[in-house]
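Hello,

I think I submitted the uridine-diphosphate-N-acetylglucosamine job twice by accident. Can you confirm which output corresponds to this input? Input:
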Amino acid sequence: MIKRVLVTGGAGFIGSHIVADLCEKGYEPIVLDNFSNSSPKIIPVLEKICSKKLELVQIDIKDKEKLFNFFKSASVDAVIHLAAYKAVGESVEKPLKYYENNISGLVNLLLAMQEHKVKNFIFSSSATVYGDAKVVPIPENSPISAANPYGRTKLMSEEILKDTAFSDKDLSIIALRYFNPIGAHKSADIGELPSGIPNNLFPYIAQVALGKLPHLNVFGNDYDTPDGTCIRDYIHILDIASGHTAALEKIASGFKGFDVYNLGTGIGYSVLDIVNAFKKASGIDLPVKPAARRAGDVPRSCANPDKANKELNWKAKYNLEEMCKDGWAWYKKHPEGFV
Ligand code: UD1
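Support: Only one job matched these inputs. Its output is below.
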């Protein structure tokens, strides 16, 4: 039976929503984080949402010794691994930082699990591994590639996990390829906490709406799409979270080996669609300016979610209106994050 679930990166945007979902579904999450891209102030907030005290381990996954020590006494049934760096631009400037954290960190974790016979693992992968896919909506068997070191760490991690699962037939490993998670918890007390100027669209829009940034730069308006701006598959963070409990259930029902699933809605929206939906949800008029294309952006990225729908018995249930409403509610209530 899977009960005690270690969530690495459990204090982050995606991790905290997974922890809340695990609590709601009767699991016992253990939050592991080094707070390099999150705040310890989230812990009491999460405890309030979960109505219980949480087990917290402040360890850096690069620290093999501490990680091994933790596993010695933790009786972990499954690991959900999110702790990784994710800024594309920074990964180009500091590739070794990314390989050390995202790859060595993963290997440390797998070694600690091997030593202590923990057999169940869920990995946070990304739609970035599809690059500029020929077939959109994108099925899992599309060719995969990477255009930058960050993407390569996701690709390599999946390879490492496949090899590891092949070497031990008792292992159950599922990689989830996230499309574009936005939105926030219904309490509006946890959400995405960008440090500095956000790279991603939704947090950037929120900063403009809060008056912290003057306008949104729309990167490219001459793509081969209906309105000329890029299309993405935005998915509510609560749906991303429930994808993980669905994967845990698949493992609990006897799945062994390695498999990958897309977590997306299957519906694509352009940058301007998001701007308009945000305006409607917030009632705020958003200043927007056309800007040059951003290097590395693909025109269209949208999931074919059929495999997850069927095999994980999971389906995204929130629409764009709710994503914008819930995301904005968080930023409006906590404009400075956790203070
Ligand atoms: C980006 C990363 C991806 C990573 C994901 C999660 C790139 C090229 N891709 O995905 O590898 O897995 O974040 O961290 O960085 N946009 C604007 N103005 C802005 C910000 C974004 O027009 O200020 C546009 C982008 O050009 C894109 C869309 O909004 O068309 C979504 O961008 P973003 O939220 O950064 O997500 P991805 O590019 O899909």
